[in-house]
Model the fold of this input.
Amino acid sequence: MQFNVPSHAPWRGRLVVLAGIVLVGLNLRLAVAALSPIIEVVRQDFALSATQVGLLGTVPVASFAVFGSLATPLARRLGLEPTLILALLLSMSGELLRALAGGAPALIGWSVLALAGMGMGNVLLPPLVKRYFPDRIGAVTAAYSVAMSFSTAVPPLVALPVAVAAGWRVSLGMWAVLGFAAVVPWVVVIVQSVQARSHLRGLLRRAPRSDRPAVLVRPGAQENRLVWRSSLAWALVLTFFANTTCVYVLFAWLPQILDDAGLGADVGGWWLAVFAIVGLPASLLAPVLTARMRNPYLLVAGFAACWAAGLVGLMLWPAHGTAVWMVLLGIGPGSFPVLLTLIGLRSRTPSTAVALSGMVQGLGYGLAIAGPVGIGVLHGATGSWHGPILVLLGLVALLLVAGWFACRPTMLGAEAPA
Done:
């Protein structure tokens, strides 16, 4: 539910929170994107086996699933802001410790810690937007979605040159600085931000009493029952699963697909960066448009069409028109910010948004765990990329069907037109 707020100074008292949200978004993919571009450099020191490399590719999705699910009960006990600070500290510690790792097991273990914090942050951001920006859900979701896209796109361009110049440990550990920067605004919010909290209370007073969200964001059994019994929530889960699986399969296998097509592994890595960068405009526009549309299914259908066209081109003509396929595939994941925005828009209160975000992202990432590994096994069994890409096209079909139900103009629990 959005509130009617005067147009003058709509951000007053909330700029510290906005900075904190954007900085958290800037951290949410660093631990994933910083390692894969330099994995061959790391292998020179640790002699990583193919199994260990595959495990490192699976760790992000698994960590997002497991620790994303834990974010909801932690937020219930500690509150949203302290839980977010804990998540950032875990992520920073993992990034620094894996840069000091003495072997492959330690590298994998500390990577889990780094990704644990990011998995919790994934779940916590939508309810924080709902709490502090109930009148600007689309715009703020767009801001941190763009930051997430930067955190995916920049490391592949920077990590290898830094590793060559200063060593892979510096290349891995330097990103912890951004984690420290993200902690600062949230400490300010908790300790000193009287103005932000006063402005929030003003927003709530101007809203009808029946629509006011609870100030304490601690979801309990009632919110959890509401979420798990909702057909809308399950539709969001399936849509999230389909989109996420396609994304992480391409992050794991796109360089090899293009290398097998004769383009070379180095070219495949460059196209992977392009795949991430192209999504920036969609990350900016999709949340804003979603917040303005009664039913944003046309957006989801458009992104699914980009997925389908890009995958067909990659399957049939990977070495010809590659730029076109990469642009289409880069636009396809635009469904992700649409779903993040819907978590806030379809929840009546921040506490419900916490429960919904935990379910959608925890289960969505959990179901996606098998994606990169399963696609690799299928490729090994068939010796071709046609079968794996057909599986991805099947997931795009699921995205279209589940997205129809996820985008309906209903509030969570009402299951009737809003």
